[in-house]
Amino acid sequence: MNRVGKKFFMTIVSAVLLLGLLAGCSSSSSGKGSGGSVVVWNDVSGDAKDAIDKMVDRFNKANSDITVKSQYFETNPYKQKLHIVMGADNAPDIFSNWGGGGLKDYIDAGDVLDLTPYLKDDSDKYLSSIMKSVTFDGKIYGVPHGNLQQVNFFYNKEIFKKYNLNPPKTWDDLLDAVKVLKSKGIAPIALGGKDKWPDLMYFEYLVDRIGGSEPFNNVAAGKDNAWSDPSIQKAIQMMQQLVKAGAFEQGFSSVGSGDGEDAALLYTGKAAMWLMGSWGYTSVLSDAKDFVDKGNLGWFTFPTVSGGKGDPSDVAGNPSEFYSISKNTKNKKAAIKFLKDANLNDKNVSDLIKISNVPAVNGIDSQLKDSDNGDYMSFSYDIIKNAKYFQQSWDTALSTKEGNRLNEDLSKVLLNQMSPQEFSTDMNKYLK
Amino acid sequence: MLGTRMNWQRWVMVLPALVFFVVFALVPMCVAVYYSGLSWDGITDPIWVGMKNWVTVFKDGEAWQSTWLTIELMGLCWITQCPLSLVLGVFMAGKQKHRTVFSIFYFIPLLFSAAAIGVTWSYILNPNFGLVNAILKAIGIGNGNENWLGNPHLALFIVSLIIAWQFVPFNSLLFQGGAKQIPESLYEAARIDGAGPFRIFFSITLPQLKYTIVTASVLILTGTLTYFDLIYVLTGGGPGSATQVLAMDMYKQAFINNDLGMGSVMAIILAVFGLVLSLLILKFTGFNRMDSQKEGM
């Protein structure tokens, strides 16, 4: 189809989809003055939304000629919505994203503004391990905002104390702890397998611990048979070893994570451990504040694997969320000013810390330590700052199609419907 | 009677419906056929790849599995819905006391949206905190450890039961209407001949409801073919791909994997499947020439 035809079709589709939105919001943003108006799309809610609202208000007050408007969506519909407006060249001025392969798709389609020339004097502002996710061919296409989202284990300290267990340092320690907990009738690890992406967290950590970053880089580069890497096969075997040892709660494949069910297993004492992104801390905090206040929530980094090539300091997860500017924005200047002046400035950083979010900026160690949930926040900040390598979640780092297939296949691996060999064969078909 | 003069008027009458049908059914279908030959993620320029998507779909066997699951689900839904709604419908058409009260209870599920039903049932069936396991444990059946929606061998069956919970009320409404149409004189005659309640049911009610059964079956089968929302909320196609029916697969390919070509292939398979199904039903049930069974009364 030619470009015009495609555009026409996508315009119609997005018009229909947007109709619902327009009916809901009374968007009567009239640009005041010469600076123009800037629309920002976000996919957060609750405290995080309030923090962004405050940031926008402050910016609008300080810049009388610019009007910034922030809009909020649910994560999953947001991904689809963004995809459609991008196709119709009708994107908002600033859009939130996860960097990696998803953003790369938009960059390749020529939809994203190269921010490199505008960020020259900001090179020390952001954590360098984070910026890798928005840097392609040496050009920077986004700046971080909001919370760092690394993955680590959480555990129920009360249960560990009761059975004289220590946080596992190695894979063998973990298997021993699983055995003990299992014999006491407690689910060793809570896993929200219904949502599939929690399965990936085990996979990406294990691959890195066993084989370092090389297996991932080969897959990302689309090398022939990259998925047949021995480290990847070993990681799959180890995941099945966990299932066989009864490490996960019964029915883990129908337990959700997005709805907070896996977290509930942990704080109700039905499960002892939980591998989750840093948002797990905030969700336990809001659902079971007592549990945190009593000091029952503990955390540790993913265990090491003996003989593995990966550095024990390596961290996996979503680095952060990012703001990028779409190429066809009419208010480039205002959008850039917003990202540089308002996003992650001192006031925004302190707002974020107040709601237990750790922003991806340098030099906030002491500020974090003194805050309400300083213990966990300092832990997050330190492991990311000290990480030799930050492994971005494979599903957002790879192309959408390959990433989704990966999550799908991993869920089959955990159900023992797929052997390590079958996994590699199937995934090799999706190499880009 | 209708001479050639009337012809243009007939066309005018048909026109609005025809326009709608062409714009909203035929055109999208042709576009889908075109899309099925593209490699396109919706944002970059589409690339024409010819039959490649079709070859992939038929070679890796996943489409076959989805098709088979869809057929399986259709069978399960018919078995769980049709007999039960027949019995309920006939019961509600009778003259028992409190019949209306019962009927109101039966109709409640019909008022809920599929999403609400899905969320509610996934909580009820939750393996760790769910009501069903708690009750089973309390009355001593099993150890309260059954994993209803997470067990690949059980999930599709459980899904069909929940679909039945949602649609039995609607189907029994059809049967109630059908049963009420049966003339009282037939029953009187049967009773005079000495027929018992079972004999009356099998010799009069059931044959008289023949076309209602056909109608209900057609609705159940075609409805299940494209059934999506409840499955999406309950299992998302999982565990593994145990409940990934055709409609679910199509959605995933097109809107999760952003592969509009593959999604269109699935859509066409679904459309052809539906077409064949309707033709078969028309052929074997005489649905198109349903006539009155009350001639001479």
From TrEMBL, chain A:
It comes from the Bacteria. Transmembrane segments: none annotated. Keywords: Signal. Residues 1-28 form the signal peptide. This is Sugar ABC transporter substrate-binding protein. It comes from Pullulanibacillus camelliae.
From TrEMBL, chain B:
PROSITE patterns: ABC_TM1. It is found in: Cell membrane. It comes from the Bacteria. Residues 67-281 form the ABC transmembrane type-1 domain. Its main location: membrane. InterPro entries: ABC_transporter_permease, MetI-like, MetI-like_sf. Coiled coil: none annotated. This is ABC transporter. It comes from Pullulanibacillus camelliae.
